[in-house]
Design a protein that fits this description.
By secondary structure, the chain is mainly beta. It is 3% helix and 36% strand. The longest helix is centred in the C-terminal third of the chain and has 4 residues.
Amino acid sequence: MNEKQATHLEVEAEVRYWEDANVNGVIDDDGTLIPGRDGDIWKARIDLDAGRIVGWPEGIEARIHYKVCDQGEYWLTDAAGARIAKWRSFYVPDEFLCPGDSGYGDYIIMDVAADGSIAKWSRPAIDPEHWGEAA
């Protein structure tokens, strides 16, 4: 894997409790308010340099505190969206999905602004030992 090719993080995480998010100040009791929900999965594509969720609808703010445990998959992708590496662990990669906090490998914790930017974001270092083949 060439970590310099990685421009985005693709997230597919099975969320246990959708109500653990606030969307525009409202508790998202059934997960119908959060952008990126696809069935029981929350999907997001994060621009690693900008710290912004790609395609996030303008004007929506969210405070996310999703319990995922071992029910997520995470890929590094190139700018075109081709998967180039997969997170080796079953745990949530905290350094990518819990900026300024610790999810202890079980949670995705982030605040998303109305423009899709993630609060307290700084591009995490990519340790090739934590990433495997994208297949």
